[in-house]
Design a protein that fits this description.
The chain has two helices and four strands. The chain is α+β, with helices and mostly antiparallel strands. The protein has a four-stranded antiparallel sheet, covered by helices on one side. A hairpin with a 7-residue loop joins strand 3 and strand 4.
Length: 101
């Protein structure tokens, strides 16, 4: 299986939605733009939150197994994907790519 690199590219915070709907939380998300994680054997890397993993697991496992070319040519690099986590208050966009052996 191939190693897959997961890079946090951008994080957005919706302060208006947080003020309206969220109970105050400490350390709700510690991921910052530039953080990287390496998935080996299609497994969740240590330190990557379960919610983010739930959004990207299919893509990481498919890439680790040699797949790609999602949705008929969605990405410029066919062996990559751009996925956001499920956090509606502070979504993080992740670029997922296969590492060369």
């Amino acid at each position: 299986m191939k190693k897959v690199k997961i890079t946090a590219v951008k994080r957005v915070e919706h302060a208006d939605l947080m003020a309206l709907y969220e109970n105050p939380l400490q350390d709700a998300c510690n991921v910052r733009a530039g953080d990287t994680f390496i998935s080996e054997k299609g497994e969740r890397p240590e330190g990557l939150c379960e919610s983010a993993w739930g959004s990207m697991e299919y893509f990481v496992k498919e890439l680790a197994s040699g797949g790609g070319k999602f949705y008929g040519g969605w990405m410029k690099n066919p062996f990559s994907a751009m996925i956001s986590c499920n956090d509606g208050f502070r979504p993080v966009s992740f670029y997922i790519e296969v590492l060369d052996d």
